[in-house]
Specification:
By secondary structure, the chain is α+β, with helices and mostly antiparallel strands. It contains 22 helices and 33 strands.
């Protein structure tokens, strides 16, 4: 009752304007409408106007900063304080001074984030490879545009790009910069928008120019022959993977691996790391190594310190006596960011729409945009020449009678009538008349006028040539090619990131001292569940639990360090290590292999084996009566590949498989009820995984092989009746006493 009164009291106070003074009204709004009206405009603004670069390779913040510096005459001029640049940029960029200065730092030579820095800097600008090295305040540092910026602004005043109003409508700024080379592929760029991101790695300028020229000459040019691989500002060694790079070039997405460069100082027994991957920092590496040392996983290091100075990056690792530097670095590459992956996501704004493009598509878009810029420049130049030609044609009209022109001007009483009288007297238009009227008195002589009018023929030839250029894509392409050759000659530098082609052999050595070695029992169920159980746990509860409808299939006693090969119904083999599986109990279902190994949808695990040292063979039996004996070494790889396609023949479904260490007699039984027995030594091993094998059992139509078992696991008594003297053979019908109660299994 009290609650009700309190509620009524509160309600009356809200309704009484004398009590509250102003009544608040809450309107309900569906969440979809809130997102559409409030959130979507913000999201699109971040995508289009902030985080994603455009075809010229710049985000709006970069473009506004560089254009401001260009307007400040900092291209080729003396340096000025960074604070001056930041202040001037705020006329175009409404964000705060801190954000503008951060952008300036990233473009600077001192910071080192770009292969070709766009800002020539003086002072402390930090380093891209350091997380903690802060840059000095803008009042202490000085900047100007780097000479390569001349290629960004070439002919910007000749209508090569569009200009728009700035945020307050008092100034004009370019929508794009007319770069003469594909800067979008040269300058590394990262951006995080709303619901999407962009990550552009840099390429070598010389390689990009060569590739673009080759692409212009032949659109089907193989890009990987000239654009060998990404080139990163911090150097390092790129581990070449043709398939991974091909995927990046084709789709614009993917990753590649880069490892640090190091040298061994034998005299002092230490390792010096002097180049690291672009995607990490020296502090991150130091922290990870310290973590490994503290955990006892790396015992070969006595000390590690950062000795970076003005000469560049240097991480020094003191080694304990007897340490093999190569083996230690291989271990550190596997466990620390000394070897790191560089992700790629070539997301670029094309006509205001974000698109993820491959390298060929980027070149197509850049070439189309650049051809339009050059065409606009040529058209602008042609317009200027036409204007001059028009004036000279008017001047030539008065050539034969200069005295008359002077007389007309002298006889005109009012200044405003001079132009109309000249237009009437010589039949010229207003623009021509004004040009004639503005000629200085000293230039009213035949020599001056003849020289001017002689330019008419030259101008007409030049205009005709320009008109032909505007209408000829081939000539425009030739202009672009010439500019690219000039850029390469002036600014190309050698690759900083070395390409390592033969790294697979180095990666193959995978020491396992970090993996604990202890005995385990493996249980593989019919439905593809795997359990790894220690002997101690198995002694406590040995009865295995399985999912309803599932049951035991295969089991092994082995070591935690062993590999496991899992074969699927889609002729694929997945390689995994037992150490990747957690120890479990008999009462658990275990790991579902299709999920654990990342198999394809609807793919099932149907058989598995422990390859050991890959010295045996695998024996496959198929429904069509064929059997294939494949060397186990065919499944051994030099790299850490986890998935092998074409693991066995796809001509017929697999019935049974055996890991063959020693030959045995096998009983092959068909759905017709026939059986044949043969010795596996009759089959020759093959090195090709997907070999079709040889026919061992002849089958009538509509019949197929039902099961295959080692002879010792069958109930066959009359073995001589079914034993084959030659292959293939149809086999004999099973007698009643030989049938037994066998289940079809894959062993």
């Amino acid at each position: 009752m009290a609650k009700k009164k309190a509620s009524e009291s509160n309600h009356s106070r809200v309704d009484n304007p004398n009590v509250m003074g102003l009544r608040a009204e809450v309107l309900e709004q569906p969440i979809t409408q809130t997102l559409e009206l409030n959130y979507m405009p913000y999201a699109m603004s971040v995508i289009v106007s902030r985080a994603i670069p455009e075809i010229d390779g710049f985000k709006p913040s970069h473009r506004k900063l560089l254009y401001t510096m260009y307007q400040m005459k900092l291209l080729g001029g003396a340096r000025t304080k960074s604070a001056n640049v930041v202040g001037q940029t705020m006329k175009l960029n409404p964000h705060g001074d801190a954000a503008i200065y951060d952008t300036l730092v990233r473009l600077s030579r001192g910071y080192g984030a770009l292969l070709h820095p766009l800002v020539d800097s003086k002072g402390n600008f930090g380093k891209v490879y350091s997380r903690d090295m802060a840059w000095a305040a803008s009042r202490y540092t000085e900047v100007r545009l780097d000479p390569i910026c001349a290629e960004l602004f070439r002919d910007i005043d000749q209508d090569t790009v569009d200009f728009v109003d700035n945020y307050d409508g008092k100034m004009k700024e370019p929508t794009l910069l007319p770069t003469t080379f594909p800067n979008v592929l040269v300058s590394a760029n990262q951006g995080i928008a709303v619901g999407m991101a962009s990550n552009l790695c840099g390429f070598n300028l010389g390689e990009v120019c060569d590739t673009t020229i080759a692409f212009l000459k032949n659109p089907d040019h193989d890009l990987m022959t000239t654009l060998k691989a990404p080139d990163l500002p911090t150097g390092g060694e790129l581990l070449y993977d043709a398939a991974a790079l091909g995927e990046i070039y084709r789709t614009g997405r993917g990753s590649f691996k880069v490892r640090s460069k190091w040298r061994y100082n034998k005299a002092e027994n230490l390792i010096e790391v002097y180049e690291i991957p672009y995607s990490t920092t020296s502090e991150a590496i130091m922290d990870k190594v310290a973590e490994l040392i503290k955990a006892g996983k790396v015992k070969e290091i006595a000390d590690m310190r950062d000795e970076t100075d003005l000469s560049g990056l240097k991480l020094t690792i003191d080694l304990k006596r007897g340490t093999d530097p190569d083996k230690l670095m291989q271990k550190l590459f596997r466990s620390t960011p000394l070897l790191d992956s560089q992700s790629c996501n070539f997301n670029i704004l094309i006509a205001g729409m974000p698109r993820v493009l491959g390298v060929r598509e980027i070149l197509e878009e850049w070439v189309a945009w650049r051809m339009d810029s050059v065409r606009r420049r040529v058209y602008y130049s042609m317009g200027k020449k036409k204007e001059k030609l028009h004036l000279l044609k008017g001047l030539r009209r008065i050539l034969l009678d200069i005295d008359r022109a002077i007389q007309i001007i002298r006889d005109t009483e009012e200044d405003a009538e001079v132009i109309p009288n000249l237009m009437i007297g010589f039949g010229i238009d207003q623009v021509q008349a004004e040009y004639v009227a503005d000629i200085r008195l000293r230039n009213i002589n035949k020599e001056y006028i003849l020289k001017r009018t002689q330019e008419v023929d030259t101008l007409q030839d030049e205009i005709a040539d320009l008109e032909d250029t505007v209408n000829s894509p081939k000539r425009i392409q030739k202009i672009i090619i010439g500019e690219l050759e000039e850029v390469k000659k002036k600014y190309a530098i050698p690759r900083r990131t070395e390409i390592i082609y033969d790294h697979h052999l180095e990666e193959a050595a995978d020491p396992e001292e970090d993996v604990p070695d202890y005995p385990v029992h493996l249980f593989f169920s019919q439905e593809g569940y795997l359990k790894k159980i220690t002997p101690q746990s198995l002694r406590m509860a040995s009865e295995q639990k399985y999912k309803e409808g599932d049951g035991p299939f295969l089991q092994w006693e082995t070591s935690n360090r062993e590999e496991l090969l899992v074969f699927t119904d889609k002729q694929q083999c997945y390689k995994t290590r037992l150490s990747d599986f957690d120890d479990t109990k008999a009462s658990a279902l275990g790991d579902y292999l299709p999920t654990k190994l990342g198999m394809e949808p609807e793919e099932k695990a149907i058989w598995a084996c422990l390859p050991g040292d890959y010295s045996g063979q695998v024996l496959f039996f198929f429904e069509n009566g064929k059997a294939a004996r494949v060397e186990l070494s065919a499944y051994q790889t030099q790299t850490r590949r986890k998935k092998l396609t074409g693991a066995y023949s796809d001509k017929a479904p697999l019935v049974a498989a055996f890991l063959l260490k020693e030959d045995f007699e096998a009983a092959v039984i068909s759905t017709e009820g026939r059986c044949m027995i043969f010795h596996t030594a009759c089959l020759n091993p093959k090195t090709t995984r997907n070999t079709q094998g040889v026919n061992v059992m002849t089958l009538k139509p509509k019949y197929k092989v039902e099961k295959v078992l080692p002879l010792g696991q069958t109930s066959i008594v009359n073995t001589a009746r079914y034993r084959a003297r030659s292959l293939p053979i149809a086999g004999a019908l099973l007698k009643e006493e030989d049938r037994g109660e066998e289940q079809m299994t894959l062993l």
